[in-house]
Structures are given as C-alpha cells and as structure tokens.
Amino acid sequence: MHWWERERSTILLGLFNLLIMGGLVFFLRRPPPAGMELVLPPPTATPPATATPAPTATPLPSPTPGPLRVYICGAVRSPDVYPLPAGSIVRDALMAAGGPAEGADLTRVNLAREVHDQEYIYIPVKGEASIPTVAAPAAATPTSAPAAAGSRPVAPVYPLDLNSATLEELETLPGIGPVLAQRMIDHRPYASLEELLNVPGIGPATYAKIKDLLVVR
Questions:
Q1: Average pLDDT over the chain, rounded to an integer
Q2: What is the residue range of 174's domain?
C-alpha cells in the first residue's frame, strides 16, 4: 500500500503520456479524406465571325444626251432641221441634208467644227459676198437667266466676296460709288474686312453700313 501511494503519480503520468501518444499515432495514420474534384466542361469552339460585306453603292445611270436639232440651209440639196447625235460635226449635218448643192463653196466652212443644239449652219455659194449669220443660242446656266431687253440688271447675291466682286457689284453697296469701288479693287487682296478702313474714303460710318454685306474668302 505504501508502494502504490508512493508511485501513483508516476504511474498516472505514464498512462497519460501513453494515451496522448496513442491518439497522436492514430491521427497521423488516419487516411486523408477524399477531396472533391471539380470537372469543367470542355471549351466550346466559337465559330469565327463572318464579316458582313459593306453594301456597295449602286452608281446612278448617266443621263443619255438627246439628239441635237440643227438647221442647215444655203447650198445644200435638202435644207431643213435635222436631228443629229451628240458630238456631231458640220460635215455630219451637211451629209444629213443630202450633201452640198452645185456651186457650194466648202472652203469657207469649217466642216470639222462640232455642232450644238439649235444651231444655224449656212453653206455659201462660190462668189457669194457675205454669209448670213444667226447668233448661237446662249448656254443656259442654273443660277441666272438672260435678261430681257430694257430690263434692269439682276441684283448681286449678298454677301459679296471682297476679293472677287466686280466693280458693278461693289457699286451696289450703300455709300459706295464708282470711285470708292475702284479703290476697293485696287487695295486687293484683303485678309480681313477690317482692312477696308485702309481704303481712302471709307471711314467707320461707311464700314458699318457695308461690313455685313461682304465676306473675305
């Protein structure tokens, strides 16, 4: 009994150590838990993007020039108005009229000249002193129309370009007569409207009247 009392603490400490050692050995030898494996689906191939061709602009059809109407008379076999294709020359008009009549003086006519719509062609006779002429029709312009006889000239379109306006256009400006208009032309070119103040006879009052009617290009 005295032996147990004397060795009890040592025996209990040894058993406690054995218990701890056994638990440690058991923990170290325990197989690790199976891990979860995340399986990703195989990547899906993305089809290449198909480039959409840009729409091509459809060219507008070119207008087909109409026939030329030419009046030919004089020393020809059949004087009359004849339709001719665009690009025709005087010789084509002469052939359309049946050719030259007897005594025609073709040396006084430029057979290679290109004709125009509504043109008048006269073939003279040999020895004829003068050839009657008729003025060719004026080409139509989109911005102006021929003025009738006795009518007033068409007013210019404002603002006027100070570097290119004509003498007559500058004279339409308020306070500007022919002398000042000519001085304005003589001082060209202008880099700005303010340079008009350098023109003799144009002061601040006159400049204030005309500056809104002019531009510098």
A1: 79
A2: 160-215
8-state DSSP, 211: G
Question: Looking at the predicted structure, is the pLDDT value of residue 29 above 80?
Answer: no
DSSP sequence for 88-135: -BHHHHHHHTTSBPTTB-GGGS-TTSBP-TTEEEEEPBTT-S-----P
Number of domains within the chain: 2
Percent of the chain scored above 90 by pLDDT?
A: 41
Q: How many residues in total does the chain contain?
A: 217
User: Dihedral through CA 211, CA 212, CA 214, CA 217, nearest 10?
Assistant: 100
Identify whether 103 is part of a domain: yes
CATH of the domain at 181: 1.10.150.320
Would you say residue 194 lies in a domain? yes
| DSSP state for residue 214 in the 8-state scheme | E
pLDDT above 90: residue 92: yes
* Angle formed at CA 72 by CA 70 and CA 74, multiple of 5 degrees: 170
Does 114 reside within a domain?
yes
CB 214 within 8 Å of CB 169: no
CA distances from 61 to 64, 66, 90, 148 (A): 9, 15, 30, 36
Q: Is residue 87 part of a domain?
A: yes
**Under 8 Å between Cβ of 175 and 202:** no
Higher pLDDT, 11 or 104: 104
Query: What pTM did the predictor assign?
Result: 0.37
Amino acid in the structure at residue 94: L
